[in-house]
Specification:
34 strands; binds copper (II) ion; 7-stranded mixed sheet; globular; single chain; Immunoglobulin-like; mainly beta; 590 residues; 6-stranded mixed sheet
Length: 590
């Protein structure tokens, strides 16, 4: 052995390791007796990515209905720019995203930037921040301008349609993609240069007519993919440490990940670095959850990453196991590295609790109608009603109860929380998140599923109206969503009763026949009156390019210019759009 050239010794070592792995039972597809195994070709592909530069990222997404292929199945569906997996948008803290959403589909849509600690309002220049009350009508376009605070967490986020009533259909059909706020590994120089894999878990159900069914059955089979790929081969060297950035960007699907012979060392959850590494042999990812994990390549061999079978409860759905990906460990073994420790973080349990609330997930007896009880009885979503009024600058304790026979997923926009208790069991402090599963109530004599959360409402730009909801989008569309309004302390004291309906808003909404009328209605009804705070500093400043108000301003200026210009049609034509018609029958069809 000592006389062999290094490469021959390495190959022999590898072959021995492959044989050992196969004997150990974690390999498949080989007889284990071959002395030389050529390297397996990697078929896994990261999604395409667009990175910010000079503090901004500019992108245009056209929502188009088109024919695509997922796996070996053709489907006619509505996606961004004709792509089932649209680009991952990569920004740094302090950057601004300028996204033009052009709706060339037949149905209204919008964009939500899941997990970002950004403004939920309409900006002073008429563009939208992360405002899910905006609807982009067929034939219209909406400029989004989302300023990422310089102190933002670093990690994996995602964007998706949040069009109430059809969000399940739209996200299932393809309207979701990844976002990354850079810097996750910055405090961990020992991991510099490790290979990064972005795994966006996305599934689609295709009916016999080659389309996503209008009535999606969460129990029926779907094509479960990684970045749109079916069972791609991902390679790793023995002992090599890689970062897997795994995001569940599905409409309804749970994933229970298992990779035999490997541990998922979670270093971030929901785009927020953990305060300590949490190792998982099995990783449960409810819809909308993200987990960024380190894995270390096992002995040379082949390992199948599965999503194990899921049962969401007696009133819920069952989904069989499936293979998501094949990991091939091969090549020169690397020196085994230690999994690093993580920087500490702020334990919300050390902070005063301003208010306690109990929020209940409720369903009708037949399980087909969905409610949230925010303290005034079970109600379905109504954007004209505020369900929880919250004082900005505070931390609140929310107890989420699930009195139904199936799992639900609690998510709140604009805010992060610490899970302090699950079904009565206190939880250690390992970090914060924006999404959490809530288990079902087994029967009437058992306690409901319960999680206790400390929710941080101290972000000064997360002021205004936004929503909390079940992130199983079938349930959200079915009514399991409620409105939170975070108010500054001064306005809080002088406001009317928290539950008062906004009688003028419904009327304004009915009159909103175009995108700009609708934005004006939102502004008039105080969903969005305060401009996004402008910051100074090279990386933090908002940048609005081009003249504003002349009907020709590109990108971010357009919405404002359209609103002000007498020649709205001209502005729309400049933007390459057909004019928006008042009469829906005249609306432009794709
Ligand atoms: Cu639910």
């Amino acid at each position: 052995m000592a006389n062999l050239p290094m490469w021959k010794a390495s190959l022999m070592h590898m072959a021995l390791a492959v044989g050992a792995a196969l004997v150990a039972g974690c390999g498949d597809g080989g007889d284990g007796g071959t002395p030389y195994t050529p390297l397996v070709e990697e078929t896994f592909r990261n999604p395409s990515m667009i990175s910010s530069s000079n503090g901004e990222l500019r992108a245009k997404f056209e929502v188009v209905t088109t024919r695509i292929r997922v796996d070996d199945t053709a489907v006619t569906t509505t996606v961004y720019n004709g792509q089932y997996i649209p680009p991952v948008l990569r920004l740094k803290p302090g950057d601004t995203l300028f996204l033009d959403l052009v709706n060339r589909s037949a149905n209204p849509t919008n964009e939500h930037y899941h997990g970002l600690d950004v403004s939920p309002r309409i900006n002073a220049n008429g563009s939208a921040s992360d405002n899910i009350f905006v609807e982009v009508q067929p034939g219209a376009m909406q400029s989004y301008q989302v300023a990422i605070p310089p102190t933002h967490h670093a990690g994996l986020y995602w964007y998706h349609s949040h069009q109430h009533g059809t969000s399940e259909q739209q996200v299932m059909g393809g309207l979701s993609g990844g976002m990354i706020i850079e810097g996750l590994l910055d405090p961990l120089p020992q991991l510099a240069g490790i290979r990064e894999r972005v795994l966006l878990l996305k599934d689609i159900q295709v009916g016999p007519d080659g389309q996503v069914p209008s009535d999606i059955d969460p129990s029926a089979p779907t094509h479960r993919t990684v970045n749109g790929q079916t069972n791609p081969v991902l390679t790793i060297a023995p002992n090599e440490t890689q970062l897997l950035r795994i995001g569940n960007i599905s409409a309804n699907m749970y994933y229970r990940l298992k990779l035999p012979g490997h541990t998922f060392y979670e270093i971030a959850r929901d785009g927020i670095r953990r305060t300590q590494v949490v190792p998982y042999d099995e990783l449960l990812l409810p819809p909308a959850s993200r987990s960024e994990v380190l894995i270390q390549g096992g002995p040379a061999g082949t390992y199948v990453m599965q999503s194990l079978d899921i049962d969401t409860g007696p009133q819920g759905d069952t989904v069989p196991a499936t293979t998501l990906l094949t990991l091939v460990s091969q090549g020169l073994p690397q020196a085994a590295a230690a999994i690093p420790g993580l920087p500490s973080g702020e334990d919300f349990r050390t902070l005063p609790v301003a208010r306690k609330r109990t929020i209940q997930f409720v369903e009708s007896a037949d399980g087909n109608t969905f409610y949230i009880d925010s303290g005034n009885g079970p109600v379905q979503f109504d954007m004209d009603r505020v369900d929880s009024t919250i004082e900005s600058g505070t931390v609140e304790e929310w107890t989420i109860l699930n009195v139904t026979g199936e799992w639900h997923v609690f998510h709140i926009h604009q805010s992060n929380f610490q899970v302090t208790e699950i079904n009565g069991t206190p939880q250690p402090f390992t970090g914060h998140q924006d999404n959490v599963n809530v288990s079902f109530q087994p029967d009437a004599n058992s306690p409901p599923g319960q999680v206790k959360l400390l929710i941080d409402f101290r972000n000064p730009i997360a002021v205004g109206k936004f929503v909390y909801h079940c992130h199983i989008l079938e349930h959200e569309d079915g009514g399991m969503m409620a409105v939170a309004e975070v108010k500054l302390p001064g306005s809080f004291a002088s406001s009317g009763p928290p539950q008062s309906p906004r009688s003028g808003f419904a009327k304004a909404k009915l009159l909103a026949n175009s995108q700009q009328d609708r934005l004006a209605a939102l502004r008039a009804q105080d969903i969005c009156t305060t401009p996004t705070p402008r910051r100074t500093g090279a990386s933090g400043a908002l940048r609005v390019r081009g003249p504003v108000g002349d009907g020709l301003a590109p990108v971010a200026g357009l919405a404002l210019s359209v609103a002000r210009s007498p020649s709205r049609l001209q502005a729309l034509r400049v933007a390459g759009m057909q004019p928006v018609s008042v009469n829906s029958a005249e609306r432009v069809r794709p």
